[in-house]
Design brief:
Helices cover 63% and strands 1% of the residues. With 428 residues, the protein is mainly alpha-helical. Helix 4 (55-81) crosses helix 7 (112-143). It is globular and about 60 Å long.
Length: 428
């Protein structure tokens, strides 16, 4: 379906002719809505207890991890682009797309702990890269002798942009959390004492009060997404997803995430129709995928002590790019012409590398099932041994009894019976 959306967007872009859609307010707002949906959908799937358990790893991953990846990617792009915009390109693809991670869901074979880390990493590094992109974009403009502001950033200056945007995210999250607690306080006292159904969230989910709470929570989420999309306060949405739950409407959230992923693929097609710069895009995509491998393989054991080697491999191959990179490319294009033509191919390269590398690792880890036990005379299968014993973890030892053969007794060869193995049968 994503490929179909990509081709549809490419067709629309070719039919509508050249022109950068970044200047269209509806286009930018739509991209913001998709990003907010993806962030909420990704963090909504997380267990708050799991996040608290891995809080140090999550914080380090979305701060130092993002900075490390951005520095590695930018270092490569400086050699290719040779300009201050190389830093902006490095930040634009330093994040992991939450829509792709949420769509991956339970189909992945990582452990629950590794999935929690990757989902939290993907959810919270998006708003971090958006903030850093706006900050370093202004610095890059000044370093290049340019002027102006990024299309979705305020115009108070780089430092003021970062601080004000972060503060606004915190305030919006605080308001959403306050409203959520008020909703729960108004409804929890009216809930009936009813045993929750298996898989349901909370108690008394069948009561009318619980249904009203779920409806109010859903309305709160919709309003929060729209406000965050209008002012690019996506960090507030990611944080709210950990606490504000919609109960019975959770399947609709998952459908919205899938739909947003499809629309994002369509937007990518429109973006690619405007023209591409393949060689820098190839270098940017390869650098982004490699930076994730370096960050995960080096920092994985420190971020999550005791993490398995398989989980570390999958985290290293976890780089995916999508709507956030598209959004940033659209926002940066007016001040850095050619950004869209580089980021667009890079997204394709990263996702192709992700798909191919994960498929190869899946095949490498596949274990061929053991052959069935040999059949005994008469067509019967040899019974499975049982019980601990000196001949293996599941074989009976002398004197313990065991399954009889067709002759009425089970014979075993043992060196204890005298002579080399196989020279004297010991009947047990």
């Amino acid at each position: 379906m994503a490929v179909g959306g990509l081709l549809a967007g490419l067709a629309v872009g070719l039919l509508t002719g050249p022109g950068n859609p970044a200047g269209l307010p509806l286009y930018t707002f739509t991209a913001g809505v998709l990003l907010a949906i993806g962030l909420y959908g990704s963090t909504h799937e997380l267990d708050a207890a799991d996040v608290r358990e891995n809080l140090r790893a999550v914080v380090v991953a979305v701060t130092l991890g993002v900075l490390l990846k951005a520095a590695l990617i930018s270092a490569v792009m400086v050699l290719v682009v040779r300009g201050p915009e190389a830093i902006v390109l490095g930040i634009a693809v330093a994040q992991i797309d939450p829509l792709s991670v949420a769509a991956m869901g339970a189909r992945h074979r990582m452990s629950r702990r590794a999935k929690t880390l990757l989902s939290a990493w993907a959810s919270f590094d998006d708003p971090m890269t958006v903030l850093l992109s706006f900050y370093f974009a202004v610095l890059a403009l000044r370093a290049g002798g340019g002027s102006g502001t990024v299309s979705m950033a305020p115009d108070q200056g780089a430092g003021a942009d970062f601080l004000l945007t972060t503060l606004a995210n915190v305030v919006l999250f605080g308001i959403a959390l306050l409203v959520w607690h008020l909703v729960r306080r108004l409804t929890v006292g009216r809930r009936t004492e009813r045993k929750p159904e298996p898989g349901a969230e909370g108690g008394g989910t069948g009561s009318a009060a619980a249904r009203r709470a779920d409806v109010l929570a859903s309305v709160l989420v919709v309003v929060l997404v729209l406000v965050a999309a209008a002012y690019m306060l996506v960090l507030a949405v990611a944080l709210a997803g950990l606490f504000v739950r919609v109960g019975r409407f959770k399947p609709y959230v998952n459908r919205a995430v899938s739909g947003a992923f499809l629309v994002a693929a369509c937007l990518l097609g429109v973006l690619l129709a405007q023209g591409i710069d393949p060689l820098p895009g190839l270098a940017l995509g390869a650098a982004a995928f490699g930076a994730q491998m370096v960050a995960a393989l080096l920092a994985g054991p420190w971020l999550v002590p005791g993490i398995s080697r398989v989980d570390r491999y999958y985290l290293g191959l976890g780089q995916q790019n999508g709507i956030t990179a598209i959004l940033l490319a659209l926002a940066l294009e007016p001040q850095f012409p050619g950004t869209a033509g580089v980021v667009g191919p890079a997204i394709i390269v990263v996702n192709v590398l992700h798909y191919g590398a994960n498929r190869l690792l899946d095949r490498k880890l596949d274990v061929t099932p053991p052959p069935p036990p040999p059949a005994l005379p008469g067509g019967r299968e040899k019974p499975e041994p049982y019980g601990p014993g000196p001949y293996g973890p599941e074989t009976p030892g002398p004197g313990t009894g065991g399954p009889e053969t067709a002759g009425g007794a089970a014979a075993r060869t043992s060196p204890a019976a005298g002579g080399p193995m196989g020279t004297a049968p010991e009947v047990i």
